[in-house]
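Work Package 3 (structural annotation) set out to generate three-dimensional models for the target panel prioritized at the project kickoff. During this period the team completed the workflow that converts sequence records into discrete structure tokens, so that structures can be stored uniformly alongside our sequence database. As a representative example, we reproduce one entry of 538 residues exactly as it appears in the project archive.
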Amino acid sequence: MSDASSDSLPSFETPVDVLLVDDDEAWARSTARLLEHDVEAARVETATSLAGGQDRYAVTDPDCVVCDYQLGDGTGFSLLETVREADPDCPFILVTGRGDEHVASKATRKGVTEYVVKHDGGADLLATRVANVVDSARTQRALERERDAKNALLELLTTTSDETTLCQEFCSLLVEAHDYACAWVGTEREDGEIVIQASAGLDGFLETILHGGDSAPDPTDPAVTALDADEPVVRSPAPSADDESGLHAVATDYGFETAAGVPIRYDGVRFGVLGVYISDGPTFDDQRCRLLAEFGETLGYAFHTAEFKRSLLSEQPVRMGVELTDGSAPLLALWRALPSESRLLVRSVVRRRDDDLLCLTAVEGTTESDLVDAVREIDGITVADGGTSVQSRGRGDQLHCALFLTGETPFSKVLDADGTVLEAAAGGNTMELHVQLPNHESVSALETALESTGADATITSLRQDPRLDASERIDHVLEPLTDKQEDAIRHAYYQGFFEHPRDTTATELAEQFGVTRQTITHHLRAAERKLLHGLLED
């Protein structure tokens, strides 16, 4: 009997299927017993020839293949070719009766995972190698699944134009690609009733659990519990002592074994809950639970930042012009620190996750050195990349730079009011600010908010007009884009991302927005695709 310590080997919650191929039938049989004893959850199938090994591999899906080098009808390398053709990542351990440097070198070149000499450590060593390579392969595949899942959700965020569609596509993704039997997203009304916003899988199960015939959610369902507790909950439905039609009975009827609920929230605000159910196969391990929690945060962030263009029912947006004459506004103070003939033009304002504002600014009538000195003099303004020089983009007589604004500013008040900064121009001792607000009710609220910053603000224009002027025609072209796609494409264009050679890289843009390079690239590609579709297809 082997003396391998199971405590020192990785543990497995699901079966570890091993295909063991060796023409020495006695060795194969005894080694199979030892592997099943030493490796947790191991199930070993044996074959005693190359042909037999190929036949067994064709009808099984082993987690690991262990094969002798010398077989009666071939070598282990022939089986390796069969395995690699079907699964390039399947762990393959080549064993030999005695060490051979030539064979070991060839095994490395051909992509063998491990090379083991039968008598160097015996079954203990082989059990350790099997457990370790399977654990490593499963970890790698879990990471790849996690990466693919995040990429898929990111793709949904960057290509979906409304919340309902996003939730529906996301639920379908969980069911079709991530082994869930059922998934749903719900919100809670003021009267406590849970409203299903989107679902995939077995809808009849949801109706039974959430309403149970008496309009009362089953309090034992993990999703309902997670919504009440505002924290993730994982549970295997247990029998109900007083309700034969409760969660346990219904889950048994539908074949569900485990369920989980995850709050959909961001920055302390809860928007709803994500519920998922597993019938067989995978379990809710730490990695799966962590990924679900991240999904809840991501969906919450999408809701929180108003990623999607929302209809305002019958109301139309209002465009307002405001004149600011107070020097405490950071960009107006910056203009006053520049030569008198200078002019500042703000093309875009974006709020980052840390609440700093990212402003894409063009400056006329000054030099880069003057601009650098002026930025350093003004509190509340920093260069976007954190360096000591402004990221200048020469376009004619303009300098383009991306700046951070901190604290309360007129721009932050516009964004707080769910408004959009269309343009801001500083020159002649004033700043003209043009914004778009959701409706007329937002106008007085913004005026009060601007006054609270100490700015001397005067409304210069206010209109609600469905006809498209020049700037509105641009908005019409950009309408299919989400807010983040529009922000990304604007900053990329004005900072020379599309020039050759590029003035700004995707990495620099990502740093300015406070997101990953992958995220900014997704936004740009999605925006380009939508704009081209509008031009070429419509």
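The first strand starts at residue 16 and ends at 21.
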